Amino acid sequence: MRNRPIGVFDSGLGGLTTVNELRKILPHEDIIYLGDTARVPYGTKSRETVLKYAEQDFGFLSRLGVKFTIAACGTVSSVKVGEDSFDADLCTGVIIPAVKAACRATVNKRIGVIATSASIRSESYERLIKYVMPEAKVFSKACPMFVPLVENGYVGRECEPTAAFAREYLSPLKDEGIDVLILGCTHYPLLSDVISDVVGGGVKLISSGAEAARCAKMLLEQKGLLCEGKSAGKMKLYCTDSPELFKENASRFIDISGATVERCSVE
Ligand code: DGL
């Protein structure tokens, strides 16, 4: 069991930010990644549709025999959070790890959350923050333009369209005096500079994917499930649309040299 791969899935490429973190902190682990590139985005879809897709993505990775699953997608995590089978011993989403980190980091108990429209609509972040820290004030904002901007390469702080949307979305959060901001979507860590420019360097940014990777490491340690190998872990990538396109776009998120990319069906 301990030498099986860790499974990570996302609606598309964004979950590779979590894989990046995982490879830094668990360099010997094999990783299988599934990006549902044929059906991305999930963040604009209904709860029922996202749930159906999530079950299929989970099922695909289970059939490959992974020892632990990370749902790196903020949207999937927000609709599935609190379910028995989820955030259990051998799987995690991104919300609980991000909320715990945010509650540890805040001093003034004013916490901002940004994510896709579906995630914000679910109110999952808000509910969980209130559960962990009832006295906290939560300020949430959907940032629907951030995913397409990242996917099209508009990521640098010199990118005026991105900076304009960041000001539009984030100025109200800054005005509320938040001291912590949860980046509740896979793509947002790539916009950290632009986001910090608007909310101010004093606001701590919490990357939900990175927190999920740390949570996975902790749970695997606790269960005695870290791999025994000492060589560099292998990475196998699956996508539901063209592998060529996947390879072309994945480099925005992570170095995939040495990894295999295959097309699969999850339905
Ligand atoms: N992966 C999604 C998330 O983290 C963003 C892209 C999408 O909308 O599917 O919410």
Which helices and strands, and how do they pair?
Elements: E1 6-10, H1 16-25, E2 31-35, H2 47-63, E3 68-71, H3 74-80, E4 91-92, H4 95-105, E5 110-115, H5 117-122, H6 124-132, E6 137-142, H7 146-151, H8 160-175, E7 180-183, H9 192-199, E8 204-207, H10 208-222, E9 235-239, H11 243-250, E10 260-263
Parallel strand pairs: 1-2, 1-3, 2-9, 3-4, 5-6, 5-7, 7-8, 9-10
Helix pairs in contact: 1-10, 2-3, 4-6, 4-10, 8-9
This protein binds D-glutamic acid.
Written account of the structure:
With 267 residues, this protein is of the alpha/beta class. It has 2 domains: 6-93 and 210-263, 3-Layer(aba) Sandwich (Rossmann fold); 95-208, Rossmann fold. 42% of the residues lie in helices and 17% in strands. It has 11 helices and 10 strands. Strands 4-3-1-2-9-10 form a 6-stranded parallel beta sheet, sandwiched between helices. Strands 6-5-7-8 form a 4-stranded parallel beta sheet, with helices on both faces. The protein starts with 5 loop residues before the first strand and ends with a strand. The model has no long low-confidence stretch (mean pLDDT 94). Bound molecules: D-glutamic acid. Residues 10-12, 14, 40-43, 73-75, 116, 119, 147, 185-187 line the site of D-glutamic acid. D-glutamic acid binds next to helix 3.
